[in-house]
Amino acid sequence: xxxxxxxxxxxxxxxxxxxxxxxxxxxxxxxxxxxxxxxxxxxxxxxxxxxxxxxxxxxxxxxxxxxxxxxxxxxxxxxxxxxxxxxxxxxxxxxxxxxxxxxxxxxxxxxxxxxxxxxxxxxxxxxxxxxxxxxxxxxxxxxxxxxxxxxxxxxxxxxxxxxxxxxxxxxxxxxxxxxxxxxxxxxxxxxxxxxxxxxxxxxxxxxxxxxxxxxxxxxxxxxxxxxxxxxxxxxxxxxxxxxxxxxxxxxxxxxxxxxxxxxxxxxxxxxxxxxxxxxxxxxxxxxxxxxxxxxxxxxxxxxxxxxxxxxxxxxxxxxxxxxxxxxxxx
Length: 330
Fold this sequence. Notes:
Blueprint lengths: L3 E9 L4 E3 H5 L6 H8 L3 E3 L7 H16 L8 E5 L10 H9 L5 E5 L5 H15 L4 E9 L9 H4 L4 E10 L7 E9 L7 E2 L11 H5 L6 E2 L1 H22 L9 E4 L4 H11 L10 H4 L6 H11 L8 E8 L3 E8 L3
Parallel strand pairs: 4-5, 4-6, 11-12
Antiparallel strand pairs: 1-7, 2-3, 6-7, 8-13, 9-10, 12-13
């Protein structure tokens, strides 16, 4: 079977910074409370005229430049998002047109904070099948559009951003690429992290707007417990079935939702801090964007290099969860 590898990486975050001090002027909170509980100091916020497709387009262009190829070389575009420009058409269609990928097909993938990881696994399968040569996977979200900035339990957590990776076939004999993936969903947790209105169950109306039902609603303690348990369990299971131990991992790149979740997961896996990538302090939770943005920073800091073993792990609304192993390719 063809082995898929990650061959390029590109990210984009909007320039506007929203600090904890800024939030203090909007809601009853303070820097110490936010930083001590979730580890965030600032996050990026898109301007009103910037949509998810705009962030995704910039990230995609940066990934193409990183690989040194034209958009017409892309066969498939997968946009992983919970904040599409609109319900339809797919944001992937808008990105395809923006970057001029005239030979590509594609689709959106909705799995909340696990979305990029699911998209990456889907891309690996498409390449391994031999039907697709180069797949562009993008995680992009403008979470600021669905956050109630009067709710201090959620508005401190999220930011906007996008990241993209290109997945293609590894060269024969090349020790790089996809190793394994494990995923899980649990719909019993659907009511613990969700946006109530705007879909077929509760279409938009004056009443849903008045009641602020188009914003993120979260039961924080339930989400926290599930996230810590599942990120650890799935990561441990993935390592075990590949005859690996935590010390074999070069770096864990987890979904950046909450510093305490990340630290608890790493501690239970027995990973020291130097083997865990954390950048939530600068960006907050960008949902689909967190894993590629964190990977970009890991590469930039010299903590992830060609041949290194990287473990990805994520948990998101739904619930969705997953872990994935890759040998870094560049």
